[in-house]
Structure formats: C-alpha cells, structure tokens
Write a structure and sequence with these properties.
Layout (H helix, E strand, L loop, with lengths): L7 E3 L9 E3 L2 H11 L7 E2 L4 E4 L8 E4 L11 H9 L5
Antiparallel strand pairs: 1-2, 3-4, 4-5
C-alpha cells in the first residue's frame, strides 16, 4: 500500500472494498509532537529532517522529507545514524 505524503484516501492492495484515509506526513509529525508534549519549534538539518528535541521524557520527534522524492525506502545509513543516537528505555 502506498501512503500519500500529503494524506488522503487510498485503497489497500488486497482488493478489499474499503477506503483508508491518512493524515499525511506533516500533520502526523505535528500529532506526534503534540502527543509527546514537545515545545518550541522543530529544527531542520542538512538532510531535510525536521526534529523536535524539547519533548517529554527526552523523546525526539523527527520527520525526514526528500524534496522531489518518490516512493522509495529511503536512506538506511541516515536512519541508522538517527537510531544510534537514541536508546530504548
């Protein structure tokens, strides 16, 4: 299933006659920031990632966007670098 970046309706690939509605990347990013009680503004890095760092319990909320990107898995080394900077509770 392809989730639309800007949100909206999509159909599951298994042929079921249902429509699934998604918020979109930016509204989902904002929702997670709200749920994690983030304050301040999100900072943006050179990779196009926006991050809230002032969140409850030391949580960071990040959204990475590839400008002009298409449906692709992204950069694993960038994801791994992000994950290494965070530990499990």
């Amino acid at each position: 299933m392809t989730v639309p970046y800007d949100g909206g309706a999509t159909q599951p690939p298994n042929g079921l006659p249902v429509t699934i509605y998604f918020l979109g990347a930016q509204p989902t990013f904002q929702k997670w920031a709200q749920l994690d009680q983030c304050t301040g503004s999100a900072g943006t890095d050179a990779n196009g990632c926006a991050t809230y760092t002032q969140c409850a319990a030391g949580v960071d909320v990040t959204l990475c966007t590839i400008q002009g990107g298409t449906h692709s898995p992204g950069n694993a080394s960038q994801g791994w670098a992000f994950m290494q900077g965070h530990s499990l509770p």
